[in-house]
Design a protein that fits this description.
mainly alpha; binds zinc ion
């Protein structure tokens, strides 16, 4: 007699994006309400949220800074360069 696991732990594909956004803090308030209502009913998605959250905590523990200093420097350098180019082009157009 084969025993089945007591609860199916399948999550809903349609909610995966919401759960990711929720964990990123990007989920809109309305969709957030929908998601929490869904989580009340759906053990699979609850499990997915919990395991994703735990994984995220592990990742953050290893790399606490989301953007490294060198990346930040590169970004601001690129931004400054683009602004300088834009100023140059505007200067040429005016002369
Ligand atoms: Zn679900």
């Amino acid at each position: 007699m084969a025993t089945r696991p007591p609860t199916p732990t399948k999550f809903c594909d349609s909610q995966v994006e919401c759960i990711n956004d929720y964990l990123d803090g990007k989920l809109e308030a309305e969709r957030c309400r929908e998601l929490s209502a869904h989580l009340e009913l759906c053990a699979g998605c609850r499990l997915l949220l919990e395991s994703s959250r735990r994984m995220l905590q592990l990742v953050r523990a290893v790399a606490p800074a989301p953007i490294s200093d060198s990346l930040r420097n590169r970004l601001s350098f690129a931004l400054n360069q683009r602004m300088a180019e834009k100023r140059q082009r505007m200067g040429l157009a005016n002369s």
